[in-house]
Specification:
It contains 3 helices and 20 strands. The protein is an alpha+beta fold.
Length: 309
């Protein structure tokens, strides 16, 4: 009975989300809106709303995490708009409800007013969906999640460094640049506190960047933490604990696209399979692109933090 109640509640929530989002964008006061995205449900009863105006201004409100106002930079806004405009056509004004018996999933609703077209789509988590989950929807959700992660880091993380590298054209000259931002949530930590790391790489050039990764898993950056005597690789720290077969995989960062990666450091080092607490002092966190050390480094950035008792 409890599962059925949760299912019914989530189904109502999904319909309500779409109705609310559509009605919001149809009001005169919302004429400057470009996108509205809502996420609701789950065990904790999440209610998150992301509203983006045509000029790139952002308001994010959340029932469980930090709310903020921000400005979405032109590069990131254009990447998001391109992904949505490219994929939303075949799934516009569609609903993808939950299968019977599913519970504790999230419901999502997106209303887009890009290119003068007012279209919407509502869905639930892929694992809970009744029927096929369109690839177009996967691409849109991935882009929205990435945008939220970028905005959250830029709005809430306090320690930041930026680095750039020119892209050389095949025939000579410069074809734009790669730009990387490396963040930590703070500059100083107490021993035992977790260090949260975020990396964003943007290809603002006119040339695609091809590289090879020695794994089918997500990391594109090698992220390390170095002290006076020890170095810890945390590139894979935020991956699920699953087997990741090491194979060579060709990847491409297209022009106008970005990559993000998160990592955490638990203020300890692995010494022959034994975790040793890091001593107080200064540490350097570095991000190298690409991950593979057999590939030439295209861009690196480093940032400083301190640990204290």
């Amino acid at each position: 009975m409890k599962g059925r109640t949760a299912l019914l509640a989530a189904g109502v929530s999904l319909s309500l989300l779409l109705t609310l989002a559509v009605s919001t964008l149809n009001t005169p006061t919302a004429s400057g809106l470009a996108l509205e995205f809502r996420k609701t449900g789950g065990i904790a009863g999440v209610m998150d709303t992301l509203v983006i105006s045509q000029n790139g201004s952002v308001v994010f409100t959340s029932s469980h995490s930090g709310s903020f106002s921000a400005a979405l930079r032109n590069f990131d806004f254009q990447e998001l708009k391109t992904t949505i405009s490219t994929n939303i056509g075949p799934i516009s004004n569609a609903k993808y409800p939950a299968k019977q018996g599913a519970a504790d999933y999230f419901g999502y609703a997106l209303v887009s007013h890009l290119e003068g077209k007012n279209v919407s789509v509502a869905w639930v988590d892929e694992w809970a969906t009744d029927g096929p989950f369109p690839d177009q929807l996967k691409q849109i959700q991935k882009a929205l999640d990435k945008t939220l992660q970028l905005l959250s880091a830029e709005s809430q993380y306090r320690n930041r460094v930026v680095a750039h590298a020119d892209l050389k054209c095949d025939g000579g000259g410069v074809c734009g640049a790669l730009g990387v931002e490396l963040f930590t949530d703070r500059t100083s930590y107490k021993l035992g506190e977790q260090v949260r790391i975020f990396v964003a790489l943007r290809n603002s050039g006119t040339k695609d960047v091809n590289y090879t990764s020695p794994t089918p898993c997500d990391p594109d950056f090698r992220i390390t933490v170095s002290g006076k005597a020890s170095t810890q690789d945390v590139s894979f720290s935020n991956l699920p604990v699953v087997a990741c077969i090491q194979v060579l995989q060709s990847r491409t960062l297209h022009h106008g696209e970005s990559l993000i990666q998160t990592a955490t450091w638990d203020a300890s080092f692995d010494q022959n399979g034994v975790r040793i607490n890091a001593p107080p002092g200064a540490y350097t966190i570095s991000a190298r692109f690409p991950l593979a050390t057999f590939e030439p480094s295209l861009l690196e950035a480093s940032i400083q933090i301190t640990l204290s008792t």
